[in-house]
C-alpha cells in the first residue's frame, strides 16, 4: 500500500514482531511475534510449530501486568476466534469460542433476556481471558467466580490434541485451566451458563460511609439482600476512609427502549504531571460529593452500574507514557488491623489514585487451582508508575499482605516477588503438571523462576 | 435487502458484514471452501439473529463449480436480492513476478473467476429487474504500483468490469456497487508493516452494509479518506509515478 518502501516490503516476509502492552502499559517488554489465527482449525499448526515454552494465548489484553505477555517470545492473539457455536434456550448454556468478548455476549443475549453469570468491571475481556484469570465481580458473595459457571471447555494442547474438560471428563484439567493464566493450552470453546434476567435495568442504591467498620456493617447487611455489592474508596483518607457503597439487584423489566452509547476515547497518553496528589485528591473529593448527592435508590442501566469506565475508551492512557500499576490484594477479614495498616501506608505515601475499589469476597470454595478470590476483603488501587518509589511502596504493601496471610491477584500484577507468589498460592507446584509444555508467560517466568 | 448471497463468506470483511446482516434478521446464503468453517458460521449467525443461514461449500476460483453454486442459489434462495462478492487473494508480489503460476492464479482468483460468477448472477437479477450486486475490489486497483501491481491490476480490472456492468444493468434497475477498501486488518495483510494501523474490518463492513441499504455512491471507498488519497495518487503524472517505489 502507499508509503511502503521496498526495504520494508522485504522485511515483511520475515516473521514480524510487535511490542505488546498490557492494560497497565507496564512493563514494556521485548517485542513478541503474534500469531493471529482466524479459525480454530489453524491453532494445532501453530502449537506444532512452536518451541517448548514459546507460546501464550492472549485475549483483549485487559490484564494489568505481565500475565498476558510473553516478552521476546510468541503470543496467540485469540480475538478472531469469536464465533458463537450454539445456545440452548431452555438451559441458557452458551457455547462460544475463546475470543468472544463479554460485551459481544451482552449485545447478543441481553435483548433475549440473558445476562452474564459473573462479570468483571469491564466488558472488554474475552471469555478465554475470563476463564484464564477466573475473574470475579460484584456478585462474588453469592455467585462465586466466572469459572464457577463454566460447564465444559475444549482445550487445544500441544501434546495431546483437543482435550474436552468438564465435571465428568478431565475435571482436573478444567480446574487447572480456570485461573490457569492461559498456561494449560488454548481454549477452543467453552460452555458458559448464562443467567435469566428481566431486562437491562438495575435497582441500584448508593450509600456513603465514613469508616471501615461502617463499610463492613453495610457489606454484611447487604449480602443477603443484594446480588451486587462493591464500594469505592477515597484512599487519601487513611484508616477511616470515606467511600461510597454501591449495591443493586436486577430490576423488573421497565420496557423502556434501550440504546447502547458509545463514549469518548482518550486519544493519547496524558502528560504524567497532570496526575498528582492535588488533582487526584480534588477528583476524589468531587467524586465523593457527587455520589453523596446522588445517594439513595435509583433504577439505572447495567452499563454505568457494571462498567463505568467502559464509556471512556483507552482510559489507561490517563496515566501517561510510563503506564500504571494496579495493586489488588485480599486480606482475611479477621485481620482488620492489617487492612488498616495497608490503608495507612497508602494514604501516607500520597501516591494513591482515584480508583480504589473495595469488596468483600464470599466464602465459596475456589473454582480453579490458582483462583485468587478467597474469603476476606479485597481492595484494588491504581498507582501511576513513577519508577522505584512506586515499586517500593508496593513492596511495603506486600509485607503487610504477606503477614496477614493474604494474597496478590496475578491478573493485576507486574512486580510481586517469587516469595509473595508462593505465599499467595502455596500450592502452585501441584498446578505445574497441567501446564502445556509449549506455554509460558513473562509473569510465570518471573514469579516461579521457570526458564521455559 | 433481506436475502443475501455472500461469495467468499469466510473472508474477514465478509465475516463482519454477515454479523451485521444477521442482526437485522436477514436470510443468508454463504459460499466458501471449508465446510467446517461454514458450519461454524452457520451456528454463529443463527444465534446472532439471521432468520436463515444456508451454506454451500465450493471453490469460487474454479469456474467449473460456478454453475452448481448458481443452481443451488436458485433452488434454495430463488428470490435473493443482493449478491456480495468478498473473496480475493494477495500473494507476495515478488513471487508473482518470478512465477507465472502464481501470477495466473492471482489473476484467476481476483479477476477471471470473479467476473465469471458476477456475470452469472447479473443475468438473473437483470431478468428480474431488481436487486443489487456488490463486489470488494481494492484501492490498489486505482493505479499500478511497483510493489503491488499484480494484485492491483486484477482488482483494477474487476473495478472496470463492475463499471461497465453497472452501466449495462442501469436500465433494468439493478444496482452495482464497487467497494474499494483501503488496507484492512485481515489475515491477508497481517504480514505487512504497520498492519496495526490499518482499518478495522468492522468499520469497512459498516460502510458496506450502509451502501447496500441505501442509494449511495456507486463506488464506495472505505474508510472514506481513501477517496481523497486515491484521487491525489491518480493525479501524479506517470513520468514521476514510475520513479516512485511504493
Describe the SSE topology.
The complex is a heterodimer of chains A (452) and B (246).
Chain A: H1 6-12, E1 17-18, E2 32-35, H2 43-49, E3 57-58, E4 74-77, E5 84-88, E6 93-97, H3 102-109, E7 114-115, H4 127-132, H5 140-143, E8 150-157, E9 161-166, H6 171-177, E10 186-193, E11 195-196, E12 201-209, H7 212-223, E13 228-233, E14 243-250, H8 277-293, E15 296-301, H9 302-306, E16 324-331, H10 336-349, E17 356-361, E18 376-384, H11 388-404, E19 407-408, H12 418-424, H13 442-448
Parallel strand pairs in A: 2-4, 3-4
Antiparallel strand pairs in A: 1-2, 5-6, 6-10, 7-11, 8-9, 8-10, 12-14, 12-15, 13-14, 13-17, 16-18, 16-19, 17-18
Helix pairs in contact in A: 10-11
Chain B: E1 3-7, H1 12-23, E2 27-32, H2 35-47, E3 52-57, H3 66-76, E4 82-85, H4 93-98, H5 100-128, E5 132-136, H6 149-169, E6 175-181, H7 201-213, E7 219-222, H8 225-235, H9 238-241
Parallel strand pairs in B: 1-2, 1-4, 2-3, 4-5, 5-6, 6-7
In short:
With 452 residues, chain A is α+β, with helices and mostly antiparallel strands.
CATH topology of chain B: Rossmann fold
Q: Roughly what is the average pLDDT of chain A, rounded to an integer?
A: 90
Q: Strand sequence of the main sheet of chain A, in spatial order? A: 15-12-14-13-17-18-16-19
Q: What distance separates the N and C termini of chain B?
A: 39 Å
Multimerization status: heterodimer
Helix content of chain A: 25-40%
Report the portion of residues of chain B in β strands: 15-25%
Query: Roughly what is the average pLDDT of chain B, rounded to an integer?
Result: 94
Which consecutive residue ranges of chain B, at least 5 long each, have pLDDT under 50? none
Gross morphology of chain B is globular
Structural class of chain A: alpha+beta
Instruction: Could you tell me the CATH topology label of the largest domain in chain A.
Output: Alpha-Beta Plaits
**Strands of chain A, count:** 19
In angstroms, what is the radius of gyration of chain A? 22 Å
